[in-house]
Design a protein that fits this description.
Strand content: 15-25%
Structural class: alpha/beta
Number of helices: 8
Low-confidence stretches: none
Radius of gyration: 17 Å
Oligomer: single chain
Number of domains: 1
Length: about 230
């Protein structure tokens, strides 16, 4: 999809997610041959408010270590600075940048609580702002603790800057990767329940070109009809 966009329009714009679900995705992406990364602009999906880039849980650090430093120089990359004193100003800065881009491909995951990016339930399906300031619910914060990014729940920030649901849905193509048994209930709710902001990632079912990749564990609670 990236190389096709470059061939058709001379450049590509992508959105990358972070977290445990993206380890293998980014490993294979940076090793994929034939991508002219000098024609690719990358946007960042979400980031905590109030931590520095040096923090082990920083998604800026994650992307620098696992993607940006592993590919030849990108055309551009736009990371979320969650350490800024006024996060709404950071949202405004990012909104001004991304408004000039058509996103060719977004790579996302689904949280244990069904969140899409850091849009926890009940997610805002209506805002047109590309990046928004959000409150993180306890299940989301416990997921971050359980994945080993923090030592205690109290250390997990309560706020984040997230790409909005509408902005994600504007992407021409979406790839959603969801491994592990702990995501099985969220996968079932998002695929077999109603499309609802109580199951934020359920909105992906309304996208015209979204591919969902599961493993046996994350798909274990799906009915046979859904698996077909």
């Amino acid at each position: 999809m990236i190389t096709r966009a470059i061939h058709e329009q001379g450049y590509a714009s992508i959105v990358l997610a972070t977290g445990a679900s993206q380890f293998e995705v980014l490993h294979h992406l940076v090793n994929h041959p034939g991508v002219d990364w000098s024609r690719v602009t990358m946007f960042h999906l979400d980031e905590y408010v109030g931590i520095t880039e040096e923090h082990p849980a920083s998604f800026r650090k994650y992307l620098m270590d696992r993607f940006i430093r592993k590919v030849p120089a990108l055309r551009a990359y736009h990371l979320i600075d969650g350490g800024r004193l006024e996060p709404r100003e950071e949202c405004g800065r990012l909104n001004g940048i991304i408004s000039g881009f058509r996103i060719d491909l977004a790579m996302v995951g689904i949280g244990e609580n069904g969140h899409l990016a850091f849009n926890d339930p009940p997610a805002d399906f209506d805002t047109d702002d590309p990046y928004i300031l959000v409150e993180l619910d306890e299940p989301c914060r416990r997921q971050q603790l359980g994945e080993g990014w923090f030592q205690t729940l109290e250390e997990v920030p309560e706020r984040a800057i997230s790409m909005s649901v509408k902005q994600i849905m504007k992407s021409a193509h979406i790839i959603c990767s969801v491994p592990e048994r702990r995501k099985a209930e969220a996968v079932r709710n998002c695929l077999e329940g109603p499309v609802s902001n109580l199951f934020p990632a359920s909105i992906l079912r309304e996208h015209p070109d979204c591919v969902l990749y599961l493993d046996r564990d994350s798909a274990s609670l799906l009915s046979s009809g859904t698996k077909k």
